[in-house]
């Protein structure tokens, strides 16, 4: 008998230790982690982050947001890179998106927000209501009103939903949970202009695509746009719960005293690790290596699997890659794990690869070898 709610489908394995980019189970078996804890441990189990965390634990790990927190200022500055933005810290991606929704509505005094089919923004009521997947909402009754859903990469479907009450348009640049679907550059440029022309805020959800995952600190940088609001979490503190909502400074008066808050948001432990994480990532050479590794991984995967009749498509950006297949996803994930490789499902028929940004060329080759075997059904 379990004392836990059964809302997770757990595999019969427990990881008890980690070293670099590998996980170790309680039986001592090692696994190459191509999931990064669902895009969280972006730097693997990095020794610099471990040292920083241990040092902070010996000092103090929590103070409420009633007092000055210099660490928050330092992390915020690293996130915005001296651009004209302000930062609000929370604990997760869903919380960051909730804050973005509240800021957009309060600043504009409007309520309607246009989102996209097959999107995923979280499981709290506001974030769930912004999500374009009915399975996420099933059984929970009415969600938060005034959300509508356009077709991804279809500017005309967006235009058809705009009204005088439209506060914002909210989207991921890569829809991760539904199967690694990339936003087209032309579409994003059109969307950006549409927002400007209609005085609509543009919210970019970078929960999974941010913190170096696609080869830049945030994916939006590769589209040549400046969003009004950006949300971040997952890899921000490399596994210590941490989220952030980044908004243009002109919006800041809408989040005045008492308008929003978090007990744990921006706590000392999260900020310490986030500061060290961003210190590593705010290095152009390191980011360039992520782009290079992503191209190598994508190229080698296509070389190995493009002629495989079980593979429909291979797509991605940086180290966020999806393999669409006709095979049973659960069976593929289980077989990869049996061979020492941790991968993720996405959507109905996609294997999602989110390796640590610190992955080595040897580890890439090892993963490709295992993937080649399981997609050729050598089991």
From TrEMBL:
- Positions with a binding annotation for N(2)-acetyl-L-ornithine: 123, 262
Per its UniProt record, the required cofactor names are: pyridoxal 5'-phosphate
One cellular component (GO) term of this entry? cytoplasm
Identify the PROSITE patterns for this entry: AA_TRANSFER_CLASS_3
Q: State one molecular function term (GO).
A: identical protein binding
Residues that the record marks as modified (N6-(pyridoxal phosphate)lysine) are 234
Gene3D superfamilies for this protein: Aspartate Aminotransferase, domain 1 (3.90.1150.10), Type I PLP-dependent aspartate aminotransferase-like (Major domain) (3.40.640.10)
Q: Which reaction does it catalyse?
A: N(2)-acetyl-L-ornithine + 2-oxoglutarate = N-acetyl-L-glutamate 5-semialdehyde + L-glutamate
| Residues that bind pyridoxal 5'-phosphate | 93-94, 120, 205-208, 263
Q: What's one Pfam family here?
A: Aminotran_3
Q: Enumerate the UniProt keywords alphabetically.
A: Amino-acid biosynthesis, Aminotransferase, Arginine biosynthesis, Cytoplasm, Pyridoxal phosphate, Transferase
Tagged with keyword Transmembrane: no
Task: For this entry, list what GO says about its biological process.
Answer: L-arginine biosynthetic process
Q: What is its EC number?
A: 2.6.1.11
Q: Which PANTHER family match?
A: ACETYLORNITHINE AMINOTRANSFERASE, MITOCHONDRIAL, AMINOTRANSFERASE CLASS III
Query: What interactions and quaternary structure are annotated?
Result: Homodimer.
Q: What more is known?
A: May also have succinyldiaminopimelate aminotransferase activity, thus carrying out the corresponding step in lysine biosynthesis.
| Protein name as annotated | Acetylornithine aminotransferase
Q: Which organism is it from?
A: Staphylococcus pasteuri_A
What broad taxonomic lineage does this protein's source fall under?
Answer: Bacteria, Bacillati, Bacillota, Bacilli, Bacillales
């Amino acid at each position: 008998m379990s004392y836990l709610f059964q809302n997770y489908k757990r595999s019969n394995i427990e990881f008890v230790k980690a070293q670099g980019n590998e996980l170790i189970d309680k039986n001592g078996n090692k696994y190459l982690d191509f999931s990064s804890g669902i895009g969280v441990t972006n730097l693997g189990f990095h020794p610099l982050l471990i040292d920083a965390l241990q040092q902070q634990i010996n000092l103090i790990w929590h103070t409420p947001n009633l007092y000055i927190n210099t660490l928050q200022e330092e992390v915020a500055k690293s996130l915005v890179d001296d651009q004209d933005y302000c930062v609000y810290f929370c604990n997760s991606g869903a919380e960051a998106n909730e804050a973005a929704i509240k800021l957009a509505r309060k600043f504009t005094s409007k309520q309607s927000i246009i989102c996209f089919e097959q999107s995923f923004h979280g499981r709290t009521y506001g974030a769930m209501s912004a999500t374009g997947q009915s399975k996420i909402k099933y059984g929970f009754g009415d969600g938060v009103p005034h959300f509508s859903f356009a077709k991804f990469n279809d500017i005309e479907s967006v235009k058809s939903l705009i009204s005088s009450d439209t506060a914002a348009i909210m989207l991921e640049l890569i829809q991760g949970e539904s199967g690694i679907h990339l936003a087209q550059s032309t579409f994003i440029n059109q969307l950006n202009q549409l927002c400007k022309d209609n005085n609509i805020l543009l919210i970019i959800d970078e929960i999974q695509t941010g913190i170096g995952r696609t080869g830049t600190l945030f994916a939006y940088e590769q589209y040549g746009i400046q969003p009004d609001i950006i949300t971040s979490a997952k890899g921000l503190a490399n596994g210590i719960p941490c989220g952030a909502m980044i908004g243009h400074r002109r919006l800041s008066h809408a989040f005045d005293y008492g308008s929003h808050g978090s007990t744990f948001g921006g706590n000392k432990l999260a900020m310490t690790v986030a500061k060290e994480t961003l210190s590593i990532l705010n290095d152009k050479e390191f980011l360039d290596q992520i782009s290079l590794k992503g191209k190598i991984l994508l190229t080698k995967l296509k070389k190995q699997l493009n002629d495989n009749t079980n593979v429909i498509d291979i797509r991605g950006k940086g180290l966020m890659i999806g393999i669409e297949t006709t095979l049973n996803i659960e069976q593929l994930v289980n077989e990869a794990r049996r061979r020492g490789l941790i991968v993720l499902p996405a959507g109905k028929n996609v294997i999602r690869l989110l390796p640590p940004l610190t992955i080595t060329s040897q580890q890439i080759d090892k993963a490709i070898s295992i993937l080649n075997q399981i997609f050729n059904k050598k089991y």
